[in-house]
């Protein structure tokens, strides 16, 4: 995957502003950058969220999702960052940023990448609660969100 | 017979009490679905791989289906539905 299309997985936090600037730096052909940031949602006494992943597969899966997005929309750059390890409520978990000539492709591709990431990238969340730890269950609404792209061709 | 590496993740790893193993898989268990059934037949904690449970699989780090064929040297992973993002 070339320079403008990058995925990474790390324990470290990320700087959204710096990532968005880097995506469009030195280019005048990019007319739109759309981004999504996912955070650890607090509540129900949540103490922390731990993210496990399948190291050998994760970046390969993310890169594959980005490649599929590039087949569907004319994209000029994509940046995907996903954190792993133990995160506190309010912490950033994931960022998807998409650069394109126009906003339509940028918005749609950003949502597509998130929908596919949620259902196909090998990450698992475990919640730390006052009564103990429990694995987060997958949601059918996430499968439905990913499935709608099967018929909803841009 | 095909020697494969098998990995387990998240709640499934905790349920079976094993994160990875190397197994000589008999020819008749040469697909993801057949291998899953073979592992489940160990009984006890391995019933976490029962047919009714939501279990996903990957072969050589690519999402696989029950009919996906397994060959010697492959890395097969079993895990619950993903919950990232």
TrEMBL record, chain B:
The keyword Heme does not apply. Keywords: Nucleotide-binding. Coiled coil: none annotated. It holds the Pfam family ThiS. Transmembrane segments: none annotated. Belongs to the MoaD family. This is Molybdopterin synthase sulfur carrier subunit. It comes from Uliginosibacterium paludis.
């Amino acid at each position: 995957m070339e320079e403008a299309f990058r995925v990474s997985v790390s324990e470290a936090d990320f700087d959204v502003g710096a990532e968005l600037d880097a995506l469009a730096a030195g280019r005048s052909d990019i007319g739109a950058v759309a981004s999504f940031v996912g955070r650890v949602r607090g509540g129900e006494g949540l103490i922390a969220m731990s993210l496990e992943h399948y190291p050998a597969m994760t970046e390969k899966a993310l890169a594959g999702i980005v490649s599929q997005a590039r087949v569907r929309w004319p994209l000029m750059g994509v940046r995907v960052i996903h954190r792993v390890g133990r995160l506190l409520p309010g912490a950033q978990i994931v960022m998807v940023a998409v650069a394109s000539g126009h906003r339509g492709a940028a918005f749609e591709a950003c949502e597509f990448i998130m929908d596919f990431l949620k259902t196909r990238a090998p990450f698992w969340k475990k919640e730390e609660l006052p009564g103990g730890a429990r694995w987060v269950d997958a949601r059918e609404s996430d499968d439905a969100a990913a499935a709608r792209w099967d018929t909803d061709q841009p | 017979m095909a020697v494969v590496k098998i990995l387990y993740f998240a709640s499934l790893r905790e349920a079976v009490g094993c994160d990875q193993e190397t197994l000589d898989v008999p020819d008749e268990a040469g697909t993801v679905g057949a291998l899953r059934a073979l592992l489940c037949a160990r009984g006890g904690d391995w019933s976490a791989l029962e047919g009714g449970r939501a279990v996903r699989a990957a072969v050589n780090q690519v999402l696989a289906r029950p009919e996906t064929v397994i060959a010697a040297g492959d890395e097969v992973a079993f895990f619950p539905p993903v919950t990232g993002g």
